[in-house]
Amino acid sequence: MQHIREHLESFAPLSDDDWFIFKSKLVFENYPKNSIILKEGTTENYLSFIESGVARLYIPKIDNDLTFGFAFAHSFVSAYDSFLTQSPCTYQIQSITPTKLWRINYDDLQAIYEETAIGNEIGRKNAENLFLIKSKRELALLNKSAKERYLELFSERPELIREIPLKYIASYIGITPQALSRIRRQIS
């Protein structure tokens, strides 16, 4: 749980009282490799902190899933749009590796916003951080070549190459696995 506190405190200082309230509402869940954490069509009711493991966000398709996000240890994962609106999700979340989550449900998070001095600020800053990550990816898809997107991803997140199947990485950067193989041959 200490990693959660450290992550939250990267946004704003957290008093011991506020931390006690927050951690008292967390629930632990363990997901084996390739488990569905959230199924398409269900409503996201949790904001989850990854203690260990890797998760991917994707749109399931018959031929090839469309991967559009990854979440790693010591970060949050959620179908955040579904969580905020409390409406059914149009994509899925899957554990790529064995994944341990600390989860807080929607109602408990709303109570934290009401009961703690710092909850709203941490929530806002975390949401801003998620927006910046999403915006950066969208701009890269529009402005950079597939090779540039791959090299940037590899330099920023080398753990991707070790832990995530290449077909998911190819989908994430918007190319086929065959095109990714060609890029990897060119740069090796």
UniProtKB/TrEMBL annotation:
Domain Cyclic nucleotide-binding positions: 10-112
Protein name stated in the entry: Crp/Fnr family transcriptional regulator
Coiled coil: none
Pfam families cross-referenced by the UniProt entry: cNMP_binding
